[in-house]
Design goal:
alpha/beta; Arc Repressor Mutant, subunit A; Rossmann fold; 2 domains; 7-stranded mixed sheet; two-stranded antiparallel ribbon; 9 helices; 9 strands; 47% helix; elongated; binds adenosine-5'-triphosphate
Length: 215
């Protein structure tokens, strides 16, 4: 499938098509012509045909498009195009660096909210990201529908904050603290212990030398 090459303008129309197809599907319609779609979504039918051809969805002459299979296809594609908003908790040295980095090389992930207990930094904007006080964390995470979080608080607070994240309903925690946090099985944790990674590298170099010599 040529999804990577879908033009931005086409990608932007996806939610409109999707919404309308949902209406048709719920009304029990099995097929739709590009002319019908065109009238409903106010996009000319040549554009619709071109847009759909990027998805490999080619309508059959005299039949139109199959509503259910188009709908299923859009559901999948929309997920790929969705911008995932991520929250960061603990705007210290590492937290700042990550806010500044903000995953610029990808356009599908961005840190859109940060939280910190320190009153000096809460209610400010850091590297373009609003920092909220911890008291607002649950409300903001739910309001912004954020499921993925980055944990950069001090070790001693990691478990407590992780518990708060779980209570707020997040599904994933990227844990930059050196401790292993406990979470229910429904929450996924990815541990990134930078100090440990560096120590491991040094250990291997000390004991085995570089890869070239150890192979
Ligand atoms: P780093 O460990 O990232 O280099 P640092 O040494 O600058 O950071 P830390 O003491 O590790 O600072 O704290 C990281 C950030 O986490 C600070 O901005 C601090 O205010 C914040 N923080 C500390 N405790 C909590 C907590 N319970 N909830 C949320 N944020 C917290």
């Amino acid at each position: 499938m040529a999804e990577a090459k879908i033009p931005k303008a086409t990608a932007k129309r996806l939610p409109i098509y999707y919404r309308y197809l949902n209406i048709l599907f719920n009304a029990g319609k099995q097929r739709v012509s590009s002319t019908e779609l065109s009238e409903a979504v106010q996009v000319d039918s040549a554009t619709i045909r071109r847009d759909f051809s990027y998805f490999g969805a080619l309508g059959k002459r005299g039949y139109g498009y199959d509503v259910e299979s188009l709908l299923n296809f859009f559901k999948k594609t929309l997920n790929q195009y969705r911008l995932t908003n991520v929250a960061l908790i603990g705007v210290g040295n590492l937290g700042h660096a990550l806010l500044n980095y903000n995953f610029r090389q990808t356009n599908s992930v961005r840190i859109s909210a940060a939280f910190d207990i320190n009153a000096d930094i809460a209610n400010t904007i850091q590297s373009g990201v609003p920092v909220y006080p911890m008291a607002e964390m649950k409300e903001q995470l739910q309001l912004q529908q954020i499921d993925v979080t980055i944990l950069t608080v001090p070790i001693d607070d990691a478990q407590k904050v992780a518990d708060e994240l779980v209570a707020a309903g997040v599904k994933g925690i990227m844990n930059f603290t050196p401790i292993r946090i406990s979470v229910p099985a429904t929450v996924r944790v990815q541990n990134v212990d930078l100090a440990n990674e560096l120590q491991t590298l040094i250990y291997f170099l000390d004991h085995y030398g570089s890869k070239a010599t150890s192979d």
